[in-house]
Amino acid sequence: MLYPNARTFLNAPSRTIALMGMSNVGKTRLGGLLPRESWFHYSVDYRLATAHLRETILDTLKAEMMNSPTLARHLRDEAMSVDLGISFSNLSVLSHYLGMLGDPARGGLAPDVFRYRQAQHRQAEIAAVQDMTTFITRARQIYDYPDFLFDASGSLCELIDPADPADPLLGLITRNTLLVHIVAGEAHEAGLIEAARTHPKPLYYRPEFLDAAVAEFLEQTGLEAIEQAQPEAFTRWVFPRLLAARRPRYEAIARHGVTVLAEDAAQVGDERDFLTLVAEASR
Fold this sequence. Notes:
This protein is of the alpha/beta class. The protein has helices spanning 6-11, 27-33, 44-52, 54-65, 69-76, 92-98, 111-130, 132-141, 156-159, 168-176, 186-198, 207-221, 231-254, 262-265, 271-281; strands at residues 16-20, 39-43, 147-151, 178-183, 258-261.
């Protein structure tokens, strides 16, 4: 482990921490509480959206705009430009591109398109994780940030093989950061499930999980093909199952770091609280 104990962590002249956990457990919120003058906040989702998938997303949006004769004319004449309004707290264009599996006539994506975009997302996320070491160096050598926060995507556990101690991404993260797993308790998980029910959003799925989930969904609903499904219906149905499938993967990965509870992380109000929380988990 990068910091063998709490004292080493607290007394270190510089700290590199990776926050890992399911979506909406508070990773980005914690990053926002740390002082900007001393912490470099590296968001994997932001990096993959602004670097590794940016041109792809822009091309997709332009292709959709070409369906409008007026917009098509302006694009061809270069009378207008298109860019992405992406921030740490607003990655809606990334979600829009990833999309939901289901009836294309109701805003869903056909299976071949959906799986292609899922594969693109996987490769982009892996590349964004691998970019971390470059940004650690840049943050310190160019911008003179002593501390570095790696804000992992909620789907990090899908990229790592928890059973493989030599997994390259896991090794990259644990060699360079203290891995901090923010684990959702039962009440928090119930809130995540309710949020997914009322406001379903696109997610990344491991191919093996997706294949099994689609087969089970079709069997339960009696539909002949996933193209017949309302996109939001499948996304609502699959989320609790995705949560359950990810839980043991996170727990296995967390053995290489430390674990804090989401309800404790929610009580953090500033940098001192944050460092104390991590240090106590390191004891």
